[in-house]
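Try it yourself: sequence plus NDP, in.
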Amino acid sequence: MPATRFQNGDTVMGRWPGSNLYYEVKVLSYDNKNRLYTVIYKDGTELELKESDITSMAIFKQGATRSRSRSRSRSPGRPRRSRSRSPARTSRRSSSRTTDVQVQRDKLKEVLEVRLTPMPMKHENNSNSKNEKKEENNTDNTASTIIEKTETESENQAGGRYNLRRRKDQGDGKAVEMEKKEETEALSQTKTPAAIKTTDLEFGGRVGVFLLMFLLPLAVLALLILSGQKDASLQSFPLELPTLQSLWDTQVFGIVLLWLLFQAFLSLLPVGKLVEGMPLKNGKTLKYRINGFYALLLTAVVVGVAVYQGVDLSYIHAHFLQFCTSALLIVTLLSVYLFVRSRWASEDELAPGGNSGYIIYDFFMGRELNPRIKNFDIKFFCEMRPGLMGWVLINFAMLLAEMKLQNLENPSPAMLLVNIFQLLWVVDGFWHEEKLLTMMDIVYDGFGFMLTFGDLAFVPFTFTCQAYYLVSHPNELSVFWIVTLITMNGVGYYIFRKANSQKFAFRKNPSDPAVSHLKTISTATGNSLIVSGLWGFVRHPNYLGDIIMGLAWSLPCGFNHLIPYFYLIYLIALLVHRNARDERQCRKKYGSAWEEYCKAVPYRIFPWIY
Ligand code: NDP
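Structure, out:
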């Protein structure tokens, strides 16, 4: 090798391409012609790096020493965290909990790696090196070291620096030395993160969210008015507007409140397992009671008994608009409550996306990440229970209303299909309720108007639009159509479920026999990407499955109007946007490995189309 800064066999820190992350790598060779070093990462990935993407370990160690001495000197002034919460203590867990620990560790790793939050660049001039200052994030107990590097070049490239939270090993049964433990605690105390100021405003910023807050409820009301009209054509604008008085009924409001209280009561029942959510940025985890499936069964029993006792559920159809306005009022009141209480939330309880300092924006996005009243998690409850359960109940009410209004002895095949297909989706959601804990809504988004509106108004009143439409717009289905739709929904469900389960199983344990046969691309973060099977067909097969199901839910309504296709159109828009958001994060996380995956699997959601 000619005179180069690094020699074959040197252990150095190499930047993961496309990111600001540095990992320990070994230099394998130097290509004089291209002036590239071939390096190998700890997970076996070999890459060619430019000299400017490599730096010596010594500089990082200096940074680490400085960082540690600062940590220690600052820590005594801070309140000591209870030892039981210390991440190091978990290493004493018994080996019988290894699987839990592994899952926990995987979850933690995912959270730390997914959430690279761009922060405004801050220059510090007290660096030993002229234009570099590096801080060790944490080197203890980690498979590889992640380091933040702040330098002019990376500033130019990324336009910001990434605030990486400490990677913590949840333990593998090995005892940890006392000194290490203290050090880890000191580090974690020093690094208790201050709230990140939201600078990247979504949805058109303050003006955008202000408009959305009015437009979204109006759009839902318009959809309901249109679906209920005899002529549900989009061309029938302007709508026959109901009087303001007819939008309100105190009894209906009372029923909605009762429904919420009933579901809250069910969610608090001490049945079902208690599981830990994803680690928060302060290192703690919250516990969640997973009993949605039981709550669904109990709700079905109560509703069944009520109908048997003569309760007329078609009342919901007759007062549908009033139910919707009641839900909208509750959304508004709850959002105000959430915003007000967030003023007392500590810095590390705030969501990264809802802390801009602009009242309207933060009100919409949600300031607090996990608002709780004692053990009652308001966000987790609203995300699943009243809305999803309400969706099924409303569909059932529409089925009864159809029979009543159209004098049918049995519900129409179209109505039955819509009810059964959507019930299957909801049952599946409750069966896999625990997985919600890893989703963006729970892990990242604050709980404010946006989610409250989505959970309590949008889901129950727009996802039911096919059933609502069918009550006044019957559609005959031939046997051929029925079979086709059942097959379509079955195929969609199979793809959706298989893709989600495969990814979940793979992330939990890549050597699981159910997924170990899949081909993968390794990445420097330790996570691999599946590149065969469904995940080798398109990059988001789970979205594809969801969309196929969405189509099967709309087609029973026929082709006379576009309105029953609202859900499908909304779902495609949502998932295309979500796909773009996710791919941006994956590109940051996995750098060139993600590019490789995109080359191997060129289509995002729709094969040969998109
Ligand atoms: P996904 O389940 O699609 O997860 C995306 C993550 O999966 C990526 O960030 C990456 O995270 C990992 N990943 C991506 N590609 C691969 C690969 N090839 N191999 C292994 N891991 C990979 O996220 P969502 O939460 O968006 O969706 C979950 C489900 O919820 C979907 O089925 C979706 O359709 C549904 N959904 C439905 C909605 C509705 O209104 N009907 C709304 C929103 C979602 P990492 O590598 O860090 O693990």
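One thing you can check immediately is this: Residues 110, 114, 439-440, 496, 500, 503, 506-507, 527, 529-530, 535, 540, 542-543, 546, 571, 574-575, 578, 582, 585-586 surround NDP (CB under 6 Å).
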